[in-house]
Amino acid sequence: MALLEVHNINTFYGNIHALRGVSIEVEEGEIVTLIGGNGAGKSTTLNTISGITPAREGQIIFEGQDITETRPHEIVEKGITQAPEGRRVFARLTVRENLDMGAYTRRDRDGIKESLDAVYEIFPRLKERESQPGGTLSGGEQQMLAIGRALMAQPRLLLLDEPSMGLAPILVQEIFATIERLNETGTTILLVEQNAQVALSICNRGYVLQTGEIVLSGTGGELLANKMVRDAYLGAS
Amino acid sequence: MKEHIRNGVSAGLTFGVVTIFFSLIGFTSTATELMGGFIGNTSTARASSPGAIFNLVFLLTLVYLWNGSMAAKPTEEDTQQKAMQSGLVAGTVTGLLVAIYAFTVGSINAAGIDMRDYLTSMSSDAIELFLLGLSPVVGAVVQLVWITAVGAGAGWLAFKLRDKPLRKAIGRLWERIKERFSQVPLIQKINKSKYGNFIWYGVILLVLVLIPLPLSDYWNYTLGTIGIYVLLGLGLNIVVGMAGLLDLGYVAFFAIGAYTVALLTAPTPHNLLWNFWIALICGVILAALAGILLGVPVLRMRGDYLAIVTLGFGEIIRILSKSDALTGFSGGPRGVRDIAGPSILGMPFNSPRAFVWLIILGCLLVIFVTSRLQNSRVGRAWVAMREDETVAQAVGINTWQYKLMAFAIGAAFAGLGGVLFASRNMFTGPEDHNLMVSINVLSLVIVGGMGSIPGVITGSLVLKGLPELLRQLETYRMLAFGALLVAMMIIRPEGLWPSKRRRLEMHEEEEEPPTEHLANPSGGDAA
Ligand SMILES: Nc1ncnc2c1ncn2[C@@H]1O[C@H](COP(=O)(O)OP(=O)(O)OP(=O)(O)O)[C@@H](O)[C@H]1O
Ligand SMILES: [Mg+2]
Questions:
Q1: How do residues B231-263 score in pLDDT, each as one tens digit?
Q2: Which residues contact A116 (CB under 8 A, 6 or more apart)?
Q3: Are B505 and A92 in contact (CB < 8 Å)?
Q4: Which of B218, B277, B242, B215 is nearest to B387 (CA)?
Q5: How far is CA B148 from CA A7, A202, B22, B261, in A?
Q6: How far apart are CA A187 and CA A181, in angstroms?
Q7: Residue to test with chain B: of A101, A131, A158, most B Cβ within 10 A
Q8: Are B99 and B16 in contact (CB under 8 A)?
Q9: CB pairs under 8 A between A and B
Q10: Can you tell me the distance from the alpha carbon of B510 to that of B36, in angstroms, rounded to the nearest whole number?
Q11: How far is CA B103 from CA A39, B50, B391, B426, in A?
Q12: CA–centroid distance for B228 within its chain
């Protein structure tokens, strides 16, 4: 049984049918990527898993439990957290307060302290900026903060929505290296990316989403070699 | 057009129009009278007495100084000459507008036409006063010269004062005073003692208990009203300032508190005659329940929708209380009278002074609860929700629960306010609970500083206390409200006494960059 099983979900925004029967699986310990063009429904997929935009039909199973109708805060408690798209940090809270917020569902003081140290070790930049308001960080730092905040809940499954968006190439490298490192230390990752080249090269498996439907899936290598993927997402040369 | 000239013209136009508007509605005369009342240099015999003219010139000069300094805001290449030019242009524009206006109304008045037929405030006296007792032509010319000169002067002054913000100077003075005080031996001893905090709380409490003693019933009544608005403000502050839910129907909970105590203790319409204290508890609980009841359907709403729905809710409660169909139940349009007051051990405890004590007690309780909440998990959840609701959900905050909690607690405070208000007045009716109450409370929260407890207290002292001091201004209170709100939004967008967090955000560009705080935590005056 996979860690996360998404069966045939349909999600709507009012009348807009954003997801049309999406099914994906994430095994324990994997990095799985979801690629697709703008408006394909990638963020919606993550938000549906997080319970923020619940599915109207279909089923989501996490660790054997049905979480389709579970409220977002309970899903966090069950071990899924998300670093949402667009570096959404709490702008007026300091870096430290942002990270503390990430541990909102936890009560184990010592464990929280350990997680905090771990996050600071991964992103030393955040420690330097500990008492600075989140809104005054640079774009890349905000992205680090958003990821760090998601890690503070000690997730079993981490959902990352376009972590490389708008970052300088060198930072993109850094972020992806971090993602791989996180994965090696035992966090399972579902990664949404526009940057298909890098994402597919670090993932175990990937899915291609198009207007709310999965049109292709396979290992990272297979997808990188696929003609359609090359034409549509890799700027074929 | 050059930037500094453009600044001058736009400030000049604004202030010209505002001055004329104030004159048309008779505000200039009223303000003059008011000042005369304070310093006692006017007689009632003649409106345009030298004293009155002096007062008018004084007040308008302040306005025109403001005009010039607004115009002379820093431009890219900031020079004294440019600042003066801005001020001069602003003064000329305002001066021309005002002079033309003064000449026109002066001539009409001189021709013997009574303008009061069209504008109730434009009496012959008022016009004469506005012309400084001079003939239309001379008056207009004097106005032009005077306003232009003041504008240029203000531009120069603004440039000179530019690098010495008043706020910093006041801040430094305050620090100095604090330092002096902390050197007094007795204060030092108290501060060092283990019970230092308790002693200070005790002193504050003692002062609060003593305040109502020397005051007349009238002032105690006013103080009570201010206190009730502090209660309301603190409640709304939780909903709007802390949780970020814009509730425009807040008065509904005030009404529920008031009607609960009314219907349970008054002889008509139900003759239940319950004990006040029990009715008080019922009122608070019912208001909190109503808060939850309103909260459930609006859980998924955000921003403007929430504002509109809550606005409707407030009106529904008022209209229900007023409706003929419910007259038998709620007293209808005539309201409910002879509401019981509190008694302690069988002794009535319902003089205005006693009520002030009771209200202060309520405020202290509410302040205690609020400050505890602010620094708790609940408070943090509210902050996160206000910042970004989606992310708050994503970090595992149960947004529904905390929204309902904010509504319930805010409503409970309002309910308490309503109980005390109705019981003190021994009467309540639909008109006690109109939209203006919601707007007043929201205004005082904004003026005081959203999310700040001392801010709410300051706000209600200013917005409920000042009008009492300036009784004559009563008819212009709404105007003053508006002007104050607009001026505040420009000058101090974070409120009179903001919470630390908001001050940080609103004045980011003025503070040193935060990185420097890190490098130099003592924040010394290196520069
Ligand atoms: N709150 C919303 N209300 C209405 N429609 C929405 C909303 N959010 C997303 N949509 C629509 O749902 C579809 C999928 O959006 P989604 O944000 O999931 O795309 P995406 O794949 O993440 O795109 P991008 O790469 O640009 O972030 C789009 O057509 C979008 O317009
Ligand atoms: Mg997206």
A1: 999 999 999 989 989 999 999 999 999 999 999
A2: A99, A103, A152
A3: yes
A4: B242
A5: 76, 72, 19, 60
A6: 9
A7: A101
A8: no
A9: 83
A10: 40
A11: 65, 20, 61, 54
A12: 14
Residues 6+ apart with CB under 8 A from B519: none
Residues in chain B: 527
The answer to whether the CB atoms of A71 and B400 lie below 8 A apart is: yes
Q: Which residues pair with B34 in a beta bridge?
A: none
Distance, C-alpha B449 to centroid of its chain: 10
Largest CA distance in chain A: 53
Would the pTM of this model clear 0.80, i.e. be above it?
A: no
- Please state the atom number of ligand 1 nearest to the C-alpha of residue A192: 22
For B383-425, the pLDDT digits (tens) are 999 999 999 999 999 999 999 999 999 999 999 999 999 999 9
Ligand 2 ion: nearby residues, β-carbon < 5 Å? A 43, 85
SS3 letters across B472-494: HHHHHHHHHHHHHHHHHHHHCCC
- HSE at residue B489, side-chain half, CA atoms within 13 A, is 8
Ligand 1 atom 3: the closest Cα is on which residue? Answer: A13
Residue bearing the CA closest to ligand 1, atom 12: A18
Q: Which helix (H) or strand (E) holds B144?
A: helix B136-161
Ligand 1 near A38 CB (within 6 A): yes
Chain B residues closer than 8 Å to A150 by CB: 394
Query: Chain-centre distance of CA B136, in angstroms?
Result: 39
Among B384, B390, B502, beta carbon nearest to A101: B384
**A151–chain B nearest CA distance, Å:** 10
Q: Give the distance from residue B116's alpha carbon to the nearest chain A alpha carbon, in angstroms.
A: 54
